[in-house]
Structures are given as C-alpha cells and as structure tokens.
Specification:
heterodimer, A: about 290 residues, alpha+beta, five-stranded antiparallel β-sheet, four-stranded antiparallel β-sheet, 12 helices, about 25% strand, B: about 800 residues, seven-stranded mixed β-sheet, five-stranded mixed β-sheet, 20 helices, disordered N terminus
Amino acid sequence: MYAEEFTYHRAESVAEAIDLLETQPEAKLLAGGQALIPAMKKREMTPETVVDIGNLEKLCGIHPTDGGVRIGALTTHSEVQKSTLLDRLVPVIPDTAAHITGGSQVHNFATIGGNIARAHPGYDHEGALLATNSEISVRGPDGTRRVPAREFFHGACTTDLAEEQLITGVHVPSGTGDRYGGYAKRKEPASGNAIVGVATDLTTGDDETVVTSARLAVNGLQPSAVRLEAAEKVLVNATLSDATIDDAVAAAGDSLDPDRMLDNKKASAEYRRTLLGPQVRKSISRATAPLSV
Amino acid sequence: MVEESPAGIGRGVDRREDARVLTGNSVGVDDRNCPDALHAKFVRSAHAHARFTIDASEAREMDGVVAVYTATDIENAETETPGPFSLYGAPLEGLPYPDETFLQRSVVGDKARYHGEIIGIVVAEARRTARDALDAVDIEYDVLEPVVTAADATADDAPAIHESAPDNVVFEGATGDRERTRAQFEEATYTVELHKDPQRVAPSPLEPRSTIASYDSSTGHLDFVATTQIPHGYRRLMSQMLAVPEHAIDVTAPDMGGGFGSRQHPYPADVLVGWCAIELEQSVRWRATRTENQLAENDGRGYEGTWEIALSEAGDIRAVRADIRYDLGAWVARGGPGLAQSGNSVMTGLYDVPAVYSHVTGVVTNTARVDAYRGVAGTEMVMMLERLVDRVAKKADMDPAEVRRRNFVEPHQFPYENAAGAVYDSGEYERNFNRGLDAVDYQAVQERKRELRKEGRYLGIGLSCWIEGAALGPCGELDIPTWGYGAIRVHPTGEVTVYAGGSNHGQGHETTLAQVAADELGIPLESVRVVENSTKEVGDGVGTFASRTAALCGSAVTESCRKVIEKCRDAVAHRVKAPAERIEFSDGEFSIPGTPNGSIEFEEIAATVHTGAEIPEEMEPGLEAQTYFDPETRTWSFGTHFAVVEIDPATGEIDFHDYVATEDCGVQINPTIVEGQIVGGIVQGLGQALYEAVEYDEDGTLRSDAFRTERLGSSGGYTLPKAEQVPEITIESTTTPSPHTPHGAKGTGESGAIAAPGAILNAIEDALEPFDAPPLTPPVSPEKIWRAINQNGEG
C-alpha cells in the first residue's frame, strides 16, 4: 500500500468525528475501507486526514424502533444479510446485501453507511432504500436530520451529505400486513457491480393474494436509483398472478426519464433498458416466492 | 513397458504441491526475505508514443533515495550498458530475422513507444521512498501520434514507430502453396470466409512480476530470485545482456502462480534490477503492482485478418487459407515472431487437407509486447478453422460432426505431414471423437435443439477439434536449446532425488516427475523427491513452457533411471556371477528367472554400488545419471471440445447446459493433473470467448489495468472469468502413445485454451442460427448477442 502520506485519527465519538471533519484538512471517513483503501493505494484518492470511525459503538447494530427498524451506519453487509429481524420486517434489504459483490471477506468489513455514502451507480442498496421509503440519518455540526432516500441520492457518487457530515443510520419504516421483498441483479462480470438491479418491496393483507402496497426501484440504470412507478401502479390492489406480473413487467420502464439512462462501456442505454423487464420479473418472482404465485 | 505400479505412471495421486499452495503457504518472489536489499521502482512512460526529457534532480535529493538512473546515466556508468534482447527464431521458414533495431532495449532514452515503457529507475532504501520519489521525477513529453492497432499502423499516413520500418511492417511471409490453394478454392463447391477482429488477452499469473538481484563484488557472483519460467534460460540471457559469465550467475524461481507463457523470457525490468545490483554492489529488489503488471507484461494473441475454407461437393476439406495481420506490440518480443510459424503449422488441425496458404504480416504498434500465451497462435488458427468448419458444413447442409469425421487424418497415415509441413507423430482421431460424441449425446442434443426452437428457446452445440504440438523438438529448430534435462541421484538409502531442468509453476512436477522415477525404479513414491526451479541445484535446463515437461524432462528422467538400472544390473551380474543379459528387473527387483536364489531389491544394490563394494573393477562407485533428451519430433496431442449452451433471446444471456472435453496426450502420467490442466485451460479459453480483452484507448493509454475498477464509465476491469461462470466439465480421454518418448507420454497443458474459444463461439452461433446473425467477435458479451439477434448488427 503506497498511499500518499496522511494523518490518521481514531474518533472516539460521533461528535469527535464531526469535529475532525470540520477542522482537519481534506478529511475522509474510514469505516469498512472497502472503497477508500483501494483508492488510496492507487493514489486515486489522497486525503490528508483519515478519520477512523470503525470503533463507534453507537453506529452499530440493528434495532427495532417505534416506527420500524434502525440499521446503524456501521452495520456490515454480513450482519444485514444474517439479520432475522430484517428478514422478517423488510426482507428486500437483507436480500440486497446478499447480492453485493466481494464475498464474505468484503461483507465482513463493508458497511451500509459506507455503501450509501459512496452512492456508486453500480452499488446495490439505493434501490432497496428507495423502495422501502427509508430515511437516512445524517449528523453534522448543525445537528441531526433525517433525509428521505429519494432526496438523499443526487446522482453518480453524489449525495446530500455535506463535507462535515456523516451518516449515522438508516431508518426503515414498518409495513402493514405481510411483507415480502427481493432483489434481482445483473452483475457486471469484472466489478461485480450492478448493470441493472431491481428491488421489490411488497405487502399483502388479509387476502394474501392481493397486493396492498408495492414499491419497486432500480439501480444501475441511471446515475442514481429510481422508482418504477408504472410497474407499481399495476401491482397495487391487484391480485398476484402471472398476468399481473406480465403487465407490471411490460409497464416497468414507462415512467422513466429516457435522457438519464447510463450509457457506457459496461452496457449501452438501450441494452440496460432491455434488461429492465426481465430483472423486474426476476425481482418480483423472488419477492413473492414464499407465496408460490 | 508401462505397468501400473502403486504410485507410478497412470495414477491420479494427490499433488504434493497442493497443501502449501492451497493454504496460503506458497512462497513467491516478493515473499522472500532479503533484508539488506534496496528497492527499485521504474519510471514508466505515461504516453504511448512520445519523445521525452527527464529531470531527476529533485528525486535524487530525497532522503533515502540512493540513485536515479536514466538511459544516459546507465550509458555513462561504469557498469556495462545492458545489451538488447534476442529472438528465439525467425518468424517463418525462409524469412530472415527481424532487423536488430526492433529488438527491445532495457531502457530507452530517445522516445517511448508504448504506455508503460521503462524510461528510468529509482533505487531507494525503502519501497515507499522509491514510490514517493517517482512522483518527484519531472518528465517533459513531446507527444507523438500513436498507432494503437495493426490496422492503424498499416494505414497510409501512419507515423513510423521505428525508423527502420517506415510502414511499421517488421516481417512478411507465408507458409504453404499459394497457387495450389487458389486452384482448390476455385474448384470447391462451398467456400466460407470469416474475418477476425483483433483481441489481445493478458495472461495474468497470480504473483505480479518480481525480481531480486544480489551482487557480491568480491566474488563477482550475481544471484537472481525471479518470477520466471526458465531459470537456466534466464541465466543464459542475463549473461549475454549483462556481460557476466554464465557460471557467475544463479537463478531461482519460487512459486509464482502460473506463467502461461508470459514469463518464458526475461523483461527489461529483470535486466535493470540485475544491472542496478552490479552497479551498486548491493541487493536490489522490485516487484510490480498489479497495475504495473497489466501494463508491462506481455499480452497474448494479437491476430486479425481473414480466414477461408474450401469444401468439395462430397464434404472434403480441400484447402484452408488465411491472411493475417499480427500485432507484435512496439518491440519484437523474443518468442513473438516465431509464433507465426507455430500457428501456421496447425492450420489444418486434425484434418487431411491437401492445400494451405497462410500469409502473415508482422506489424508494430504503440502497445506492450505480444508474445506467447497458452495455446499461442495455434489457438487463433484452430478457433478460426473450427468456426469455418461449422459454417461451411451448414452451408453445404451437412452435419458439422460428420464433416469433421470424414476429414480426420486416419491412423494408417501416421506419421502424417500436413500441408503446412508439420509432422504429426501418432493419433486415433475418430476413436477419440466418438468418445466425445457419446459423452455429450450429440444426436440427442441436436434433437432437443430442434424441439426447443418450437418453444422459442435457443439451444446450440458447438464443436472444436484441437491439436497441440507439445514439447518442441528436435534441437536445432529454434535458436534456443529445446532438449529436456533430467538427472537422478540415488542415495545410499535407496531414496532418489530427481533433478529436472524445467521450472514448476503450477504444473505439478514435484508429483509427476516423482511418479516417473518411482515407476521406472519400482520404488515407493515417498522415496523420490524432485528438485527443480533452480540453477543452483539443477545442473542444466531449458525451462517450462510449450507443454514440454512430460515429454522432455520426463523422458530425460526416464532415461536417467534406465541408465542407473543398467549400472545396477551390471553390479548384480557381478555379484551373482551371471551374465547381465540374464538378469531381469521388474517391480523394483533384480532377479534371474528360474533360479531359486531370490531377488535383490533396488535399494540394496544401490547401497552396494554407492559405497563401491562388490562392484566390477571397471565400474565407478556412486549411482547417478543425467540425460539431455533430444526428441526426434515434437509430440501432437489432440481431442475435441463440445459446448452446449442456451441463449435467452430477450437478454442475450448464455447458460451452459454441458461441456465435454476429450483429450489424448498419449500415456498420462497423472490423470488428475491432466484434468487440472484441461480445466484450467478451458477457463482461460472461456475468458477469451466471453470476457477478456486488453483495452487501449485511442491515444494508446492502457485502460484495462486492473481486474476490477469502479471508475465511472469504464468497462469494470480486465475481466477474468470467475468460478461461478465456469460450467461443469466432463473429461474423456483416450491414449495413443507417442512413439518418440520412452514412456509414451505426449505434452499436455494448452488444449483447454486452444479448444474452448472455438467450441463456445460455435455453440453460441449455432443457437443463434434462426436469427441469421452476423459472426460474433470475442469477447462475446450478452449485449453483443442481444444486438446480433435484435438488430442484425454487432455491438
């Protein structure tokens, strides 16, 4: 590792971390390091200060709350994947974490906070957070605020986070009724990131064949994740069946802004658009598998 | 001759190497301790084609920096300036060697000709210091227009990379009979033409390149530890280039996790680390980062052009023709041009074809060197041939398997000289082919394909017959030695050490060569150990590449064992006072048939001979032998791969239903190891077919410098295949012994890489037949397939 020289600070509290971000020159946060360290090794990123928040207990853990569940920013992908609480309350999130690339070595270190702070278009959590109407807790010198997911992700590697702020957690609201979720991803073969990944978050009520709420979101298609409102409209209050799913798949791309499609060496805009339908189908099928539709 | 003994030839014994390699205990070059070594880092050109000036004054001032050398500094230094690299041989028979000016120098001072070319060296006390010093070296570039592809390089106004080749053509020549081939094409009922776009691949061994050189000025001894496939060859070349006598140089090659041909020569970096060690009279070490390795290690492949096949009305292949442009990179690499000959020699594969003509133009481009990579040019020739066979069969409305079968060289035709002049030693092509057809259940797959099409599902089966000219020989064909060196020393205990002149870097020699010796001598496998990879411990050698070890080193080891057995036989004869001819040796024991005296075990007589007791007067004590094995001809392994895939027309995704690989490499020393070689080769062939492509920008900047990148807009990285992408592979073998090796083994190791690309491409194109899609260029991504289906054009 031949990073350029930097000063290392280990923050003992969130307040100290924020203070360091404010006062130290060119400071970057170190959580799991799975994006930062490779970049520093290659000198693609050269922060003068590295603020290690890996020890902050307050940012760890998955806890039930009044309105749902809170996932601490430092929760690793392994912990998210294995959480029986999340699997019960909001299954799309652990299913998404299971599809993040890197295997157990990366999953044991990489954190949900680091993942969403980086907001790489090929990463996987954005769609699930949009689909679950989650909020991201952000803390800075001016205090704490909660940002709805749809306002947090601005574009490719761009979020609502200011330089002296850090993510402290993710709040996922409970649903009503039985909740189902699934994530289906077409992997880019070298990086393992998503070319197109679709998250489905669905609830059914007393009649388990009728959808009471449906939210779908896709990452990888555009610079940041977007909801698939046209597909959602087909599903809400509909009876789950092959025909309904076919209609949702067919409608999936209708609400999308065609000018915002990603178009690059990994895949063209046209091809990504083509993948959307099949990925939506896989995602809905995955989510509804327990219902054996 | 070759009986199955408990752990001898033919047994799939576990590899001795595996325990350390699989548990993270293998020791690579960079793992070696050398505490007093200085650290070198290379200043590399950031541009593909540029003149430059270097100001290293700031770097030299830095704390901990010992020296910074540019080409001028090296020329002015006391230590002799390194000489240029040399070549294995001429590109094609009858062609002269490429001009001396195309041979790479270790460091350049006038202009850089590829992104990453070495233009200076920093030597420092710590690795980090050297890295920081690189940033302090000030370079001014006068960027020149680069030519990045062979097509660009041969265009009308293309800038010349070397003054001595104004048109960037370094050689041009042909194999075969042009007129005869032309006549065949004119008469043939069916002809097909297929174009190949360039595709370069990066061999990607596990350990990036690394060199440690230590120079003892009091003895004049220069010691290397390096990522090389050729310790003895490396010594020879370092001696030439650094002007140090060969006997004063030693080379050791620890575990490096593969070479695949990219390390069958030294590199400028190796020479310069050695030079620094001499100049500074100290140990100097260097290791490439992965990025640096991708940048500067040789690429493989590099062919583009047009291939054609001619078929008669009855289905006989009458001729094969190729017009090839060969991208050599900026400098002509040691083995690079010679690959044109080896490629042309296999252009008819397993078929009896009366006429061939292959015209190859070697072109320089502003990119890294191109040289050997598993399968070498044979891969491209076989891939194109097999694609053509499928296409022409379909054009003639014939079954592609039938066309292959009717054209195979037949057993009675061996030794068979093909129209390109290669002499195949032995083979039973149809027998082996039938094994594969059965294993994949060919007719059933064809039937299923037809059924599934009615349901809107697209299955395809692709075949690729392959031939591998393994174990180069006889000596004199190339400008390097090609014999195999194998020596054995029998210890007083009867245990044996085998000294092999190759270099084990994943092939399992510690196991196979022990099996060979154990088999010959009739002793337990545990009694044999193998020493290799070192000029210090092994008297002579050539290295390991071109699938040579089983046939060459293995044969040398066998012959050395037989020399030892003969000496023991004479000692036994003396002891029992009987003529040597009456004494038999079998299963590790000497005996006289029909006598009640019993037998004498090898270990027992070995002890006697070693001490010199009870041996004939004219016999020397001691029990060891060495052999330089010079084969009469190279050996030719063969087989066929069968790939069955399904394509999802909506997304272009590929799903493997089956993959069968047949192999005939003569007698297999260790079938498990042979299978490992096949599978590894298939994975690399799969990589070439579906994933891998070295990527240079228009300005000659290498883009594919990492296996994984998150750079926005990039391709995601140089895409090596992952375990989850590899299909289940069924391997079937037949055994047609080589008549030229004592144990009947042929070379093996490259077949998977040679056959897989053609089989996979043929399978995909077979699945896409209803869509009348244009030919696909590898690497074939799902998007490319989707475009071919939906737009009748390629992405």
